[in-house]
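RECORD TYPE: protein structure
NAME: Integrase_H2C2 domain-containing protein
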Amino acid sequence: MTIPEIRFAEVVKPYAGEGDINGWLTRFERAAGLRKLKNVAEMLPLFLEGGSALLFDRLNEEQRKELEKVKESLKTDVPSFFWVDSTIVLHWLSGTPSRWKQFVANRVLEIQHLTERLNRSHVTGEQNPADIISRGMMPTHLRDAALWWHGPAWLCQLSSAWPSQNPCFELSSQELEERMVVHAGQENAPNPIFSLRSSFMGLVRLVAYLRRFWYNCNPTHRALRRVGYLRTSELQEATQALLRSAQRECFDEEINDLQRYGNVKRSSGLKTLCPIIHDGVMRIGGRLRNAPVSYDRKHPIILAASHPLTMLIVQHYHRNLLHAGQQLMISTIREKFWPIRIRNLVRKVVHDCVQCFRLKPTTNEQMMGKLPAERVTPTLPFLTTGVDLCVPLLYRIGGRKTAPVKCYVAIFVCMLTKALHVELIDNLSTPSFIATLKRFVARRGKPNLIERDNATNFRGAARTLKELQQLFETQ
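PREDICTED:
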């Protein structure tokens, strides 16, 4: 139900005093559509009190716009006061909208926005002019109602003689406030150093220079200062430091368990990898300790899928492999590292690569030729047939000690329905194919056309059949 659907009598009655604007508010005891609610007794004050207050504020907003023009002309400030005989409404407006139900919260939020600079005060129902019309009064009696025309007697006095604007209410039992609070936190935030470079080697060199600066600042290393180009050992130490930092951020609990107990918990996602600690870096365990391969291939370094360092490493391999495909990248990366959910990472890197997107090869789709009439004309099966032989097969005649013998399979294909007929043929001679053709005709019927390639047995069979046809025609 919206505010225009609630029927209010003359709920707002502005009264202009000396330099003040006073608005009087009460509620009308009838509202349309309340019988649609399941709990009328509970929701009735929400519609009556809250709806009346919101209607007054909307009307007061229109008057305030006109009053601003008067203030600009007179160059004076005219305060406005909001008088209401409902302590419920004042209690609603004094708190945050999130404390109330949705219906009240929406209206309280709008009222607080419209009457941000309005003085709200309480007045008794006997001294409220708007209460006269809401309760009903005959026009003859309304003419002599001084409260309606002039307001309460104290309104013409100084504001210090007005009723208290913050009345104290005695509550028999104080209701505990229920307020929903949402906390947004981030645990183990990534080290900002991982976002200082957009490439893995750039980040490694940055950390290497930082470690060199820290090393040279040590007074005990004054005679062994490191200068010049970065050494291979410095790059390796920087890489190890980055890997230890990344693993500590993502697998802090697993690393502590490995250092303390030698294994991880059963509930850990790394349990199936049998992780181990080597030089402060967590690696995959496994059973390849005696394999004749490098230590990195036997025990790859475990990396988290969501860490920025993992993405930098995958991008580094993608560029070094000259924008290779996903399978090559996965196999190469796993020779040293073991990122969790590596396929999703590789797929994302390849998909986001601009060069791969621009140079992605696409197959040219050539226009196919027109189908021959034999392929599209409805006929009986195998009336138009294609024939070919498959690769040779080996079979044995007798026991296992006999030598294997070659054989072939003749495949007859219906050009219209794609039906297959398979016949076994012992060799590639012309008589063998003619015998196979006789078996096919005896089973499927005589075809009108046979399509074949230029194999010697096919040409020999065609020549033999033509000679036989000429013999029949001459005789």
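COMMENT: The longest strand covers residues 405-414.
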